[in-house]
Every structure is written in C-alpha cells, then in structure tokens.
Amino acid sequence: MSIAFTPWPESFAKTYREKGYWTDRPLVDLIDHAPQDNVAVLCGERSLTYRDLCSQSKKLAAYLQRLGLKSGDTAVVQLPNIAEFYVVFFALMRIGVAPVNALFSHNESELKAYVKQIEPTLLIASDGHALFRNDAFFKTLSESSEGLKHALIVGSAGWADSLDSVLRLSTDVSLSAQPSRADDVAFFQLSGGSTGTPKLIPRTHNDYFFSVRRSAEICQFTSSTHYLCALPCAHNFPMSSPGAFGAFHVGGCVVMASSPDATTCFELIKRHQVTVAALVPPALALWLQAAPTYKDALTSLVLMQVGGAKLSESLARQVPDVLGCQLQQILGMAEGLVNYTRLDDDIDTIVTTQGRPMCSLDEVKVIDEAGNEVGANVEGELVTRGPYTVRGYFKAPEHNAKVFDHEGFYHSGDLVRRDENGYLTVVGRDKDQINRGGEKIAAEEIENLLLKHELVMHSALVSMPDDMMGEKSCAFVVPKMASHGMKSITLRKYLRGFGVADYKVPDRFEFIDSLPLTPVGKPNKVALREVIRQRLLQDKKL
Ligand code: AMP
Ligand code: DBH
C-alpha cells in the first residue's frame, strides 16, 4: 500500500522524466551503486565502507521484515549524528517503510505530534536521549497509536531490542520486500512550520534523488570529497544539499561530528582531511573566532557552505581569509527549492546573495501582496514549484489551501529580492516563525501552549534581534490578573512540562497589560518587535 500525498500533475511528471530529472530509481541506489570499497562513513573510531553500509542496512531490513514491517508502513526515527542514522535510513528504504527523522533536540511534544500524524509501526531511537532510557515514553506513545508495536534502541537501555545486537548478531539478509515506487513517498522531511502542529513533508524517491544529484554536481562533489556532517543529520541541509547523500552519490566520505562546536570539528577536519563543511551562521561565527588559533588544522577545507538563516555580509567576507576556503551560500527549504551561489561566482555575489535555483525547471516568482510578480530588485514573497518542490504537506488540507496556490506554487513566506541574473537575497519574512540561528520556531505552537496556563490571557511570540543568533524569541504575555507577580521562570518551567524542544522555549518574556492589535484585531507583531527592540536598546543589549 502506498502513502497518500499530493502528487505532481501528470504533465509535470512527464516533463521531469523526459528531462532526465526523475530517473525512477529508489534512494537506496545511492549506496548500492557506490564503489563498495570506498569509505562511506567515519564515526568516532569506526569506519564503514559502502559494502558495510549496504550489508548492515540489509541485515536490519531483513530483521524488520521478519518483524512484519511492510511497504507503506511508517516509522519515527530519532538518532544523534552517528553512522546508524544512515544504516537505519537505507534499511527502511529497502523495504518501503517511510520514516520521519526527528531532530535529536526534539522532545515529547514533537515526537507525540509525529506519531499522531503518521501512526507508525516502529520507533527507532537512542538511549542517549533522556526519553528513551526506559520504556515509559514508548508506552505513552504506543497507547496513543495502536499500530506502534516495535521499538529498536541504540545503546544498552535493555527495555527494547538493541539495534547494536541486530547489526552484530543477525546473519540473515534475505529480503522479499521492495523499496516503495520511485514516485511514491520515500520519507517525511520536517517543516520549520508556522502553525500549531509541525507539518510533515512527504518526499518521493524521484524528487529527492534529483535534488541530491543536481546539488552534488553544482558543488562539484567527487569520490575524494570528505563531507563534515556537523549540523543535525536529519535536517534537510546536511542530508541533501548536497550533504551526506550528495557525498554517497559520488562515492565520497561522510565524517560525523557530534556537534558543530569549533574544537570538535577542527580536530575532525584535521584528522580526516575534511574538504567540505556545512553550517548555520551562528556556528560559522564561532568557527571564525576560533580559527586563527587552529589555522593549520583547516588546510584541507575547500568549501564552507552556509545556510538555514541569513548570513551577514561582514561574516561572509571573512570566510576566505580566516578559514582559507571558499564560501557558498544556500537558501533552502525542506519543502524543496534549494538555491546555491555557484563556485565560480564573483565574490560580491557570493557574499551578498543566497544564490539561485539549482535547475532550470525550478519556477520561482517574486510576488507582491496582490499576487502580481514584481520587477528585478524589488522586494516580494518567494513562491515556487518544480521537480523537487512538494505540492502539499502530509494530511493538512486546510494549511495546504493557504500555502499552495491553485497552480501548485508553494508560498514560502520568505521576502526576497531577485536581481537581473536570478540571484535571490533574503530581506525578511512574512510567516509567523522565528528563525533562531537556523532553528525554526512556529510562533503559534508556543502561543497555544502558553494560553493553556490558567493565568495567561493572551500571548504573542515574536523575534528579537540577537548578535550571535540573528534572532531569538520573545514571548509577550498578558496575565489574567493585573497584579499577577508572574515570573519568566514559572512559564519556562510550564512550557518544559509539555516536553517541547529546548530551542523553542522563549529566550525572554515580557509581561504587558494588553497586546497592541492590527486593524483586523490580530496581535500587532510589527509593533511588538519594535517594543522589544527599544527595550533591548535601553538595556544596552543591542
Ligand atoms: P524549513 O521550512 O525548516 O526547511 O526552513 C526553510 C526556511 O529557512 C526558508 O524558507 C527560509 O525562511 C529559511 N532559510 C533557509 N536558508 C536561508 C538563508 N540562507 N538565508 C535566510 N533564510 C534562510
Ligand atoms: O533551512 C533549511 O531548511 C535549509 C537550508 C539550506 C535547507 O532545507 C536546505 C539547505 O536544503
């Protein structure tokens, strides 16, 4: 059985195939067709060749098949940056099981929401995460979703089957199952979101494979590429732009870093002669600070990719000198469209723009509020459709009706300017989201939780400027009683009680008597952002 999703119209699919963009191959070909003796993944002291990666993922696939998992089933996976992430991903691909790969920073609230949406059969997680040290949370999850029968845990928690033992002890690799069809859902990508519940993005083999292939080509990945995976491995950027999958596609090597921290990464770069790294701007800023002390550690690095949030021109300009390598900016989204500055672009284009779309069939329009296209260098909203941009979120008809128009264009909520050469520069955002140094927070999700507090009457979450992160989050709260004595710490604790990911807990709370409203009666977030900016100026925090 295949998983329901919004397909591309037949006429588009035909063009994408005719152009050779969709090749009808399953994603597992990324590793099955790679030179098997090459090293695919370096993780701590472990080194896995493509042969190892293939055989381990076959073992796991055979084991899961014996458990009864079948094509069309789904799984929730939450793993840190370890080699098993890829073993698991490709094992699931072999038998047509579609995972949601949660970020390791995700917590009870996010995992519950994913389980509710996809009703998985299987959970694969790590006992390195507090939620999975015992079976309590798994029990809660399986009570809410009756199909969720199986758990596999990395580590030695002892309450579920151990992934390590399956990979070590199992010998049977006989498989009767097949990958899902190439134009069916392969897995779900996560959206940064702007709504109360996080939306899932169904990605097909065909569309994702294309974006990986084309990205690897643009970034000139080869079998000598050593790619440092320092961002959370489940994120679309280090997975596919070109990311680990781009490295696999050309038989290159992925070096796993447990965090983007400069000292951790610099040691790995030196030890494994890393050639390409991908970061969000706050991590880049820390690398730039640390690099002068470690300069000889970075000599192998040829390309530094930066994306996920707006990079300032001043940081961008430092990269070639301080890191001794080339910069590439990327404006991407888990929904699809990815823009790259090209390796042979002039330096001004590289430091001032976020690149241009990766292929000629990416249709990008920049539109005004009335929906009309604006001219070159005029600000407007980026809307797009193309061979790897999805046509709808998973099971979200109402939200889809708002963000996908009748021609199938995805309205990104990003405000951009496009120059005469098609290069995009991000200038703002028209969606209710905070971009905390690349980590996206949907304002509504946190506002809804705050409103559940018995003493909260209204709440509005807005971004506030921050030197390091670009943006942080500030919650304006109107308490029910004027002399409330309510404290930030109370609300922080309250939110943590729901088990939301740490990065979503507001950095600052402001208690006010009423929210300023727009003419239609919604919280006036423009005004609130100005209020907090003024307060930060007063506090000399800006
Ligand atoms: P997500 O929906 O979580 O995949 O996040 C994608 C969003 O991240 C985009 O729509 C942009 O708002 C933001 N983004 C990604 N890359 C950049 C960048 N280079 N500059 C500014 N914003 C970015
Ligand atoms: O922020 C993103 O989602 C993002 C950034 C860079 C992305 O999805 C990508 C590249 O593929």
TrEMBL record:
Residues 35-394 form the AMP-dependent synthetase/ligase domain. Gene3D superfamilies: 3.30.300.30, N-terminal domain of ligase-like. It comes from the Bacteria. PROSITE patterns: AMP_BINDING. GO terms for biological process: siderophore biosynthetic process. InterPro entries: AMP-bd_C, AMP-bd_C_sf, AMP-binding_CS, AMP-dep_synth/lig_dom, ANL_N_sf, ATP-dep_AMP-bd_enzyme, DHB_AMP_lig. Keywords: Ligase, Nucleotidyltransferase, Transferase. Its EC number is 2.7.7.58. GO terms for molecular function: 2,3-dihydroxybenzoate--[aryl-carrier protein] ligase; nucleotidyltransferase activity. Pathway: Siderophore biosynthesis. It is an enzyme of class 2 (transferase). CDD domains: 23DHB-AMP_lg. Residues 445-522 form the AMP-binding enzyme C-terminal domain. This is Enterobactin synthase subunit E. It comes from Marinomonas profundimaris.
